Please model this.
Amino acid sequence: MKFSQFFIPTTKEKPKDAILPSHQYLIRGGFINQVSAGLYNFLPLGHIVLNKVKAIIKEELDRVNCNEVTLGFVTPAHMWEESGRLGKYGKELLKFKDRKNIEFVLGPTHEEMMVNLVKNRVKSYKNLPVNLYQINTKFRDEARPRFGILRGREFLMKDGYSFHSSEDDMIREFNLMQETYSKIFKKLGLDFRIVEADSGAIGGSGSKEFMVLADSGEDTIVICKSCEYAANIEAAKRVKQEAPTTLPEAKFSKFKTEGIITIEDLSEFFKVDKHFFIKAVIKKAIYDDRDELIVFFIRGSDELEEIKALNSIGANDLIDATQDDLKDAPVGYIGPIGLNSKFIIDEELRGESNLICGANEINYHLVGVDLNEHLKDAHYADLTIVAEGDKCTCCGGVLHYTKGIEVGHIFQLGTKYSEALDANFLDENGKSKPFIMGTYGIGVSRLLSALIEQNHDDKGCIWTKATTPFLVNIVVSNAKKEEELSIGIDLYENLKNKGVNVILDDRKERFGFKMGDFELIGFPYAIIIGKKIKDGFVEVIDRKTLEKQEVEIGNLDKILEIIE
Ligand code: ATP
Ligand code: MG
Model:
């Protein structure tokens, strides 16, 4: 490929809202352009990278017998009605009506479509398992599309769905997908971690995310420095916290605490560590048919993890309670003993004694509270955020935070959709049963951002060898000079004949401009045909290190050795 014949509209201008390097460089390097909020075009360079990423994904999936399909982007709303998601999915779901007034949805994910495809086509356990996938457009009307194609509204996803006759077989496939995804991300040249993820109301350890480590990542990951443990903050576990001090026994009694409501002030007032207080966090839970105030009780030294809280009650959403919602509540003095509204207590408080909590009466707290005695049968659940410095449940090591970009997600789904959509097979005994499913996603277009977030410098992109649009960029310093251009063309032809993916910058532009483009676009190597040719040399530049090496003109083997 020659630059002079290729559409690469690079620009010096930084897009206004581009905070992240990947967003800035992908636009400035002529890989993508923005059409509207969260909507992007892929230009020739971006298109090539996208196809390379897709090819690696496809190669590994096909190797383990996944079947590629292409489903419609527009999905009938009645399928979403049947699965119960039409109302629940929220504003991310883009709905519209056709000329016959029939409602449709732009697919944000394709469980409904895929289950409907398999339903009545796979009838017997003999035809299971099946794993079907597609690499296709998705649309989610994200509240805050940002960071370029990292969080777009229209984006490309690989979504796969497997169907099984037994739980064991689904878990086998889930493990196979974990292994396959690891191979894919390794091949792409990414530094990533597999983390335990939130499994929603389904629970269990059946959900894992693939996180590309990057400071700019939107997800906080909890990792253990001493072992392999890694989890999304929403799903992280820790060893139960030990009491920082021992406390003198207090008798269960009511204590006047006039005007003292924050944990800090109470801790100061009682001269007792925050660990021994029960803190109330009041939220409004949104269900299909109602809203309800719910109080979450955690230690005074902890913070509420909202996803864990949401999972503990199985609601659609949790939002902050308004002042109006709380007008009758003794705010600052709310405790679990004698409380009339629904409440959940953090699992780490189970069986604890000698605690202090609100008395549900303005200006009073209770001391000497023993949960074993007072609230043995209350609803307990894991509700707290794991903090840095907490201990790992696998090895006792110290837990730390790091940031990641979610590029993949695998999920043991079970029968949620097959039951809702009445998708069944006949087992060995001729009995009808719902399919047991797994789902597996990869953010294909997001991967371009993730690759650049992890591989860039202050000049531009640095593509990994597996994903770069071209491996080598031959830069003819002055394309108006016959000799330089002809050496460049010779080298270009020779490298092409050796199977090297090469582009020739034969544009009649200034040398500095062309080098700027090389650094911005981020091909792994440049070969400069310039001043040095009078001594019989070209220069090879490594984009990552920007180191230069002189190589004799015509020494193709040496060049091949460097770019190997
Ligand atoms: P996120 O938490 O980042 O919003 P998600 O958990 O909602 O993502 P999934 O439903 O698990 O996303 O979708 C599978 C994959 O699709 C994700 O792992 C991610 O890589 C990608 N993805 C999701 N939303 C977007 C988006 N708005 N733009 C680009 N890629 C996305
Ligand atoms: Mg996800």
Remarks:
- The domain at 25-72+109-237+400-453 is CATH 3.30.930.10 (BirA Bifunctional Protein; domain 2).
- The chain has a mean pLDDT of 95.
- The pocket of magnesium ion (ligand 2) is lined by residues 406, 409 (CB under 6 Å).
